[in-house]
Specification:
The complex is a heterodimer of chains A (115) and B (112). Chain A has 115 residues and is mostly beta strands. Chain A has no helices and 12 strands. Helix content of chain A is 0%, strand content 52%. Chain A starts with a strand and ends with a strand. Chain B starts with a strand and ends with a strand. Classes of the chains: A mainly beta (115), B mainly beta (112).
């Protein structure tokens, strides 16, 4: 089974500042997909950003960007210009190319944006 | 456009009772999944289904039963609920092609 590790269970950041969440994973597959999901207090799981392992370019979605280091099996999320609405749990997730679309999740990072 | 729905949203049941959590999606996605979310564990896969009448175990299947007679429905049954099954349960679906999963709103289950 794939394992996904997230450290720093809780982080605080001032509004408008930048915060980076780290994620490492373990796999023997060459092609796979990585995701960051956001879970606000409403409990809804919201896809923030995704990265295909075969793409060398780091994905970016507005204020969210990733640093994907395939050799190091690292997939960090950077939130720029943090907003109060970014307060949420963030989960890193892995999907193998041969895994029937199953996701393996990390344990999550709680991010609190302070006004 | 309802997307993916779960019912009930909240449920309290007693130890030993049978309870079924419902999941319905309107996209005709081939894949469906059940996860449980517990503090300190993230989301863990219970069961998944690649198509109607095809189901398989995930990481934590013990104590759960699933069926998928229709593409759009994927019910999860706890045959004899235990306190350790108190959790938030998420259903998700995927069409397989774009490798993204879409999640329902979750069901908070409490077993007393």
């Amino acid at each position: 089974a794939q394992t996904v590790t997230q450290s720093q269970p809780e982080m605080s950041v001032q509004e408008a500042e930048t915060v980076t969440l780290s994620c490492t994973y373990d796999t023997s597959e060459n092609n796979y997909y990585l995701f960051w999901y956001k879970q606000p207090p409403s409990r809804q799981m919201i896809l923030v950003i995704r990265q295909e392992a075969y793409k060398q370019q780091n994905a970016t979605e507005n204020r969210f960007s990733v640093n994907f280091q395939k050799a190091a099996k690292s997939f960090s999320l950077k939130i720029s210009d943090s907003q109060l609405g970014d307060t949420a749990m963030y989960f890193c997730a892995f999907m193998g190319d041969y895994g029937n679309n199953r996701l393996a999740f990390g344990k999550g990072n709680q991010v609190v944006v302070i006004p | 456009d309802a997307g993916i729905t779960q019912s009930p949203r909240y449920k309290i049941t007693e130890t030993g009772r049978q309870v079924t959590l419902m999941c319905h999606q309107t996209w005709s996605h081939s894949y469906m999944f059940w996860y449980r979310q517990d503090l300190g564990h993230g989301l863990r896969l219970i069961y998944y289904s690649a198509a109607a009448d095809i189901t398989d175990k995930g990481e934590v299947p013990d104590g759960y039963v699933v069926s998928r007679s229709k593409t759009e429905n994927f019910p999860l049954t706890l045959e004899s609920a235990t306190r350790s099954q108190t959790s938030v349960y998420f259903c998700a679906s995927s069409d397989g092609g774009n490798h993204e999963q879409y999640f329902g709103p979750g069901t908070r289950l409490t077993v007393t």
